[in-house]
Amino acid sequence: MKANWEKIEKNLGVLEVEVETERVTEALDKAFTKVSKKANVPGFRKGKVPRSVFEARYGVESLYQDAIDILLPEVYTQAVDEADIFPVDRPEIDIDQFAKGEVFKFKAKVTVKPEVTLGQYKGVEVPTQKVEVTEEELNEELVRLQGRHAELVVIEDAAAENGDITIIDFDGSVDGVPFEGGQAERHSLELGSGSFIPGFEEQVVGLATGDQKDVEVTFPETYQVEELAGKLAVFKVKVHEIKRKQLPELDDEFAKDVSEFETLDEYKADLKTQLESRKDQEAKGVREGLVVDKVAELAEIDIPQAMISSEVQNMMTDFDNRLRSQGMDLDMFLSFSGQTKADLQEQMKVDAEKRVRNNLVLEQVAKDEKIEVTEEDVTNELETLSVSYKRSPEELRSVLAANGSLNSLREEISLRKTVDFLLSNSKEVAPVEVVEVEEETTEEVK
Q1: In 10 A of CB 50, how many CB atoms?
Q2: Which pLDDT band, with edges at 50, 70 and 90, does 332 fall under?
Q3: What CATH number was assigned to the domain covering residues 2-112?
Q4: What is the fold, at CATH topology level, of the domain defined by 264-429?
Q5: Do the Cβ atoms of 182 and 233 come closer than 8 Å?
Q6: For the chain, first and last CA: distance in Å?
Q7: Under CATH, what is the fold of the domain 151-246?
Q8: Is residue 328 pLDDT above 90, yes or no?
Q9: Is the CB of residue 271 less than 8 Å from the CB of residue 138?
Q10: What's this model's pTM, rounded to 2 decimal places?
């Protein structure tokens, strides 16, 4: 096989490929095997038609498209490797020649990863990040932990409040007609969680156990179920039970229950150390982001739109996965927020372009500085991941190798090492203090 790459403009080029006749013959054989299983030829069972009979009846040309479909992906990938290019979008294929006994010739117009011209990346100035845990922050963390260890207590003689867990029946209808998904019995609903249609939870607040009420709400105009969008719905609601969080006292007993310490003061001292460590990591993350952004700003790159679009899709997928982990999905989020998928994608474009730019710059720095990922790096990373996933490093390696993600792991490690390199070669400077200056009035200027 021969492959010739010629750049025609910016990140666009043409890959001309010639494939030997032997591989064309093999592809035609595979195409015949596939097609003959479905071919109807009088006097022969399916899959038993002789090749000569098939070609005499249908012509060898009837196999060409299937043969191309079989051969093209394989030879295109090989041609890309041979030309040492990195496509970032689907190629535009133009078949020049394909016939039995002849060389297969085609052209592929390909958008490739752009070249990166680095600016300054050593000695970049990065503002220092002050790390301090205030008494207020410490108390907020204690309150959060207090809430985590709260007990749910059934409330008998009080009205429901925001934050309470209510056990309710509801039966919804639009114009008196029940709709799918609008009914449930003994459903657990946390008031103030925003998990129901806007306006629903607010009307349950104030009800007591045994109360019944007709709750009227209007579905959002962009609701995912079109026949309900913008419609007024009535839900017949009955409250079976109300549960409220009962917070434990913040005292020495609390410290003993939730930690290894005997007193609250000891627990608070340890908690402050933990918060300082967390803030240290957060501050480092901020400095890393600043140095990468600065180095990326100083670089020259012409980013193909295809790379930005691809990153937007990745961000949409990640966002959907996060929503699902919280019991929602993308369609539900869009209906609640009143946005369309196109609106969300448009909002993500700026961040997507920034991500692509930063990653391209980091790759180029790693290349110029010969930052490599060793087997020891991979082993250490797998050992760290094994704690989170509760699987051995060997198992994780096998899984990642099987699904083709081991190279992605190496890329992540490389990017991280490159960020560490940039940070260690940066200069810390004091944060710039913004001083507000009162503007002079027109009269004062005169």
Answers
A1: 11
A2: confident
A3: 3.30.70.1050
A4: Trigger factor, domain 2 (1.10.3120)
A5: yes
A6: 81
A7: Chitinase A; domain 3 (3.10.50)
A8: no
A9: yes
A10: 0.69
